[in-house]
Each structure stands twice: as structure tokens, then as C-alpha cells.
Design brief:
The chain has helices spanning 2-21, 28-38, 42-63, 69-81, 83-87, 103-123. It contains six helices and no strands. The chain is globular, with a radius of gyration of 15 Å. The model has no long low-confidence stretch (mean pLDDT 87). The protein is mainly alpha-helical and 127 residues long. Helix 1 packs across helix 4 (69-81), helix 3 packs antiparallel against helix 4 and helix 4 (69-81) packs across helix 6 (103-123).
């Protein structure tokens, strides 16, 4: 279950950070195409991140030892990816040609943070 949370943080962070990752020289276009192919399943990644983050939040609130940042970031990733489905309002898109500004920039930075937290979670013992 912890692996699902870590992978959801990494993949969801990538989907959120694509607005900034497209600006990278040489690999930006390829990452943009990869994100475009993965965009239809972004809601699945959001559900996995929300469910696993919520599960670990409840477990750590009830039995301890404390709330970790992995689950908080997972819940944030899930909410960001499911924003359009939860609220009915359109989410800011990273595919717009003006680049990452405003809310899209904030989501892209949060996506980069989620990638780092997901990678950290892969190397953190679950015990």
C-alpha cells in the first residue's frame, strides 16, 4: 500500500509538473508528449493518491506515531488531479501555450515537490 502511495506521488507529481518540465531543453517536448498520453488516466492516479493518502492519514492519526508528509502530499496530489471531477469547475491546464504562470505555476511546483516526496518514500522504511 505504501508503494502505491509513493508511485501515485511520483506519477501525479509528474502530471502536475508537466508545465515546468516542458521548459527543459532537449527533453521537454518528449516529456510533454508522455504527459499527453498519460493525461486520460490522471483521474485514476488521483483516486489512488487520495485513497492511499487518506488511508495512511487515518492510520497515523489513530495509531501513531505521527502524521507524515507522504500522506499529506498524496492527498494534495489526489485533490489537484481530481479537481475538475470534484468541483465541476475546469482545472488549470499545463498544455496552454503561455507557459506556467499563476495557479499552473503553483501546481507545477507542488508537482515537483510530490515527485521528490514520492522518491523519498521509496527509500524510507515502512516500519
Amino acid at each position: 500500500m505504501a508503494l502505491l502511495l509513493d508511485l501515485a506521488n511520483i506519477v501525479g507529481g509528474f502530471l502536475l509538473a508537466v508545465a515546468l518540465l516542458r521548459l527543459l531543453p532537449r527533453v521537454g517536448d518528449d516529456l510533454g508528449r508522455l504527459a499527453g498520453r498519460a493525461a486520460p488516466i490522471a483521474w485514476v492516479v488521483g483516486v489512488v493518491a487520495l485513497v492511499t493518502g487518506g488511508y495512511y492519514l487515518i492510520v497515523h492519526l489513530v495509531s501513531g506515531p505521527r502524521v507524515f508528509h507522504f500522506e499529506v502530499v498524496g492527498i494534495g496530489v489526489g485533490l489537484a488531479l481530481l479537481w475538475e471531477r470534484l468541483t465541476g469547475r475546469p482545472a488549470p491546464r499545463g498544455e496552454q501555450p503561455t507557459g506556467a504562470t499563476g495557479v499552473r505555476l503553483l501546481l507545477a511546483i507542488f508537482g515537483l515537490i510530490a515527485i521528490v516526496v514520492g522518491i523519498q518514500g521509496l527509500f524510507t522504511p515502512d516500519g
